[in-house]
Hints:
Elements: E1 19-20, H1 40-53, E2 57-60, H2 73-86, E3 91-94, H3 105-110, E4 129-133, E5 137-138, H4 147-150, H5 158-165, E6 168-169, H6 173-185, E7 189-194, H7 197-208, E8 217-221, H8 232-241, E9 247-251, H9 257-266, E10 270-273, H10 289-302, H11 310-317, H12 326-332
Helix pairs in contact: 1-2
Amino acid sequence: MQFLDDSLHPENQDKVVITVAPYGPEWMPEDFPEDIPVTMEEQVQKAVDCYNAGATVLHLHVRELDGKGSKRLSKFNELIAGVRAAVPDMIIQVGGSISFAPEDEGQAAKWLSDDTRHMLADLTPSPDQVTVAVNTTQMNIMELLYPAYLEGTSLANPALAAAYAEMTVPAGPAWLEEHLRRLQASGVQPHFQLTGIHALETLERVVRKGVYKGPLNLTWIGIGGGFDGPNPFNFFNFIHRAPDGCTLTAESLLKNVLPFNMMAMAMGLHPRCGIEDTIIDQHGNRMTSVQQIEQCVRVARELGRDIASGKEARAIYRIGVQYDSVEETLAKNGMSPNRAPNVKNLPLRAA
């Protein structure tokens, strides 16, 4: 990304698009009963509360009545429909790590040869976005979840902690290409969740080959355990390498969330918050998703940045936009063109 002398001036920055992840699938309801919704009505209301506080992107997971994360396509369809009716301007972003389990023999037969994560392209109503990982990666969320923060929570259970420590995100080249094909055919925008420079470089190659033709909405994830660690130099290196025309959101965990959100907002980028990322504030006290959004709003206003409305966030993210060619995709995302025959040195962007 390019930074000019006046790039840190708020009048030259987009309005702030706040992403909230209020469903926190790694926690059980007893870990934070005041802020973990379980019934469908509670889950819809949580989206409404977050939107009213200033969040315009909802990172969506769904729970069953027993509090566990749902793998039922029908439950996702129900929550998306409920949120769409309650807050129609909110951007619905489904967490792409979910895979579905068939609910009947018909679904079992239909999905027999498919990776069930591809069913995210078949959600009805369609979400605006699905998060997409690039490259298969270890996702050991336990690496930076210090024991003092886990005391009295479900993640203090050694068996559960061991399972989360061994998590991986499978996102190999064949899966990625097929997943992007299906999402684009369904008109669902991928939001790329990137674990470091290696993932950004692979994504650039995917774009240059024409596998993906659309806006680049990116989240840098600094959570360690196979992803970039929460080191500002990792974040700044990623920002430096990111295309000029992308949108970029910061994501970290626990007490790292606020510092990275403040850095992101100061540089004209965007924050993510919610109990999926942290259930505590900087003093170790429980902090709800709405309280985290309100904190982002206060910081943004101190920096002189306005908060995007739902409609404004859709325009910033270019929801619903796809491009016709590789060349158009590169140009719209502020990337240099592919090398043409006999072109020496670096291909220049068109004036």
